[in-house]
Amino acid sequence: MVPRRIFLSIILALAVGCGESRDDTAPVASVSAKFNTTRPPLGSPVEVAYRWVVAPNARFDEDYHVMVHFLDADEELMWTDDHVPPRPTTRWTPGETIEYTRTMFIPVYPYIGKATVVAGLYSMKSERRLRLSGEDRGQRSYKVADIQLLPQTENVFVIFKDGWHPAEVAEDNPAVEWQWTRKEAVLALRNPKRDCLLYLSLDGQPGGLPDPQTVTLVLGNQTLDTFPVGREQILQKTPVSAAQFGTTDMVELRLLVDKTIVPASTPGSNSRDPRELGVRVFHAFIEPR
């Protein structure tokens, strides 16, 4: 006869086992991510190199999206960087490695300290997540990195000085913010007196403009860069040398837009917006080298 305490232990183990949902699905891939810095200040850009290794027998029945979540020390979600991989998953072949790099800006979030980064693959149709190899942090999200978030005061402070309309926020995502320029807009900053890289995340072609606009960056009497801006958001990176910054304590960088539009004055636009719109800037950041 089985002793009572052993019998109860067996019953408890069976009950716990029946309550668990075992994931016997074969992993379709493994994922890893490498940050160019593990100590980014809030508001700063980071380069994230993703690496996917497809399982030998993997098959993808649709094009899955990449889920990237940033969690605080209590495992609470702070923000996401979900995206579509450069090559659709239906074109991933068994055994191959897919690598790509994305630049993202750390949101100015009210949190300083350790952040855990998890990733996964999910369906936009059914929201189903695929099983991957690696450390599952729950609900098929897999740890890829730890980073340490630093205060925004570590950055070179950039002032949106003249020629800017007030900031706007996306209705469906308060983390997405931008400012429209007029024909000329000025960014002011304290001279870093060292070589830097200027990041500008922007898009354009407001209202009825049929063709891309041209943006020219000018520092003093020097033209730093000229590039086209269309409806798709781009990230323009422009190197600026210490010599180009000069010796003054404060410097001003001008954004000149070749074509602007006033929606309220555009025939057929049905808009009452009286503003002169140039390009829409999401981020302007100076990174010392």
Written overview of the protein:
This protein has two domains: 128 residues, Macroglobulin (MG2) domain (Immunoglobulin-like); 133 residues, Galactose-binding domain-like (Jelly Rolls, Sandwich). The protein is globular, with a radius of gyration of 25 Å. A hairpin with a 2-residue loop joins strand 13 and strand 14. It is 7% helix and 43% strand. The chain starts with a helix and ends with a strand. With 289 residues, the chain is mainly beta. The strands form four sheets. It has a five-stranded antiparallel β-sheet with strand order 8-11-16-13-14, with no helix packed on it. Strands 9-10-17-12-15 form a five-stranded antiparallel β-sheet. The protein has a four-stranded antiparallel β-sheet with strand order 4-3-6-7, with no helix packed on it. It has two helices and 17 strands.
Task: Report a brief summary of the structure.
The chain is mainly beta. It has 2 helices and 17 strands.
Layout of secondary structure:
Elements: H1 4-19, E1 29-35, E2 45-54, E3 65-71, E4 77-80, E5 97-105, E6 113-122, E7 142-149, E8 158-160, E9 168-170, E10 173-180, E11 184-190, E12 196-203, E13 213-219, E14 222-229, E15 234-240, H2 242-245, E16 250-257, E17 280-288
Antiparallel strand pairs: 1-2, 2-5, 3-4, 3-6, 6-7, 8-11, 9-10, 10-17, 11-16, 12-15, 12-17, 13-14, 13-16
